[in-house]
Amino acid sequence: MLTLDAAAVRQSTPWHELIEAIERLLVENDASVPQRDIHDVGLPDGGTGSLLVMPAWVDREVLGVKAVTYYPSNAGTDLPTISAGYLLFDGQTGQLRAVLDGDELTLRRTAAVSALAADRLARPDASRLLVVGTGNLAPNLALAHVAVREFDAVEVWGRSPQRAAATVQQLVEHGLPALPADTLDEAVGRADVISCATGATSPLVRGALVQPGTHIDLVGAFRADMREADEEAIRQATLFVDTLDGALGAGDLAQPLDAGVISVGDIAADLASLAALRHPGRTSDSEITLFKSVGFALSDLAAARVILDRMDSAGDGLGGQMARSERL
Fold this sequence. Notes:
Blueprint: E1 2-4, H1 6-11, H2 15-28, E2 37-42, E3 48-58, E4 62-70, E5 82-90, E6 96-101, H3 102-121, E7 128-132, H4 137-148, E8 153-157, H5 161-173, E9 178-180, H6 184-190, E10 193-196, E11 215-218, H7 231-236, E12 238-241, H8 244-247, H9 251-259, E13 267-270, H10 271-275, E14 289-292, H11 297-313, E15 323-324
Helix pairs in contact: 2-3, 2-11, 3-4, 3-11, 4-5
């Protein structure tokens, strides 16, 4: 049994390979993905956190389970509020093959899902990418998006200019044409693709400023009280989701639904329909498209399957990047 740290997970999931693996698993449609379980957990400060359990498997091939903890009591400390681990089992024998760094796996698959959707929904000539947010997901989103198309400029906006500058520097070191955006509204107005990954509870992207033909990617707001785009942005866009059940509970869609701005019937398609070409995606250069994702266990499994294939090809070695541990 192997333990893979963040660096090993990152090395083992190159963008093109990861994006193709997610697309393939969506198209094959042979994975079992039960609803995730969410349990309340008592916290040291007397509050309540969460334990999420997200299983998925392909019969006789591979099984995976991601466990995620949400500890809001860690806010303001050096500890993250969300931590995750992933267990990867052999589908033939049921034996535990690897324990993966779940945080890195989540970052990689989340960004890859956004890139896959943008590949179907952004204009072919899209040349300006705006990343809104400066957390760990922000550079991953930019790198995944540039893996599916070439951008002339990658702008980064965050509430902290210092954090935005640090994110830009990371992207420049990867060879991207990155630069900080001084004003969010102006950056929204000149972007062809807008990718948001924030914890905002009030809208950041104003629909009145979004230009025809823009693709909007909303990743960060996963709770009903969170919001990254205003009602105008939602109302004027053709709406797509990673999974219908998950995305409808997020504030970017849940709040306009409650207000009667949109209905469930306004959701054009989910990612599986886009991947399998059951929906054509963008239908005109002037259409505004919007993709809302909250994460789903199938994408975790696809990423883990990429790692499993590399383990088998490399004899469980992966170039010495994995640390061998004792069998549990």
